[in-house]
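idk why but the lab printer keeps eating my pages so im just putting this in chat instead. protein + zinc ion:
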Amino acid sequence: MIERLCWMAVPKSKISRSRRGQRRSHDSLKKVTYVECPNCGEMKLPYNICSSCGFYAGRDVLASEQS
Ligand SMILES: [Zn+2]
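predcted complex ->
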C-alpha cells in the first residue's frame, strides 16, 4: 500500500548505448572562438562590438550612439 503513494516516473524500456549516444551527440560545448580586433588588436567575439574600444565594422559604434 505504501508503494502506491509514491509513484515516480519510470522509463518503459532501456535506452540502448546507441540511443543514449545519439541523444548526447549535441551535448558537447563548442570551443569559444575569438578574433583580433582590427582597430585595437584586442581579442573579441566575432560579429560583436569590441568590448575594449567599442568599434564595429570599422567605426566607433558606442561613441556615435551617445551623440
Ligand atoms: Zn577594439
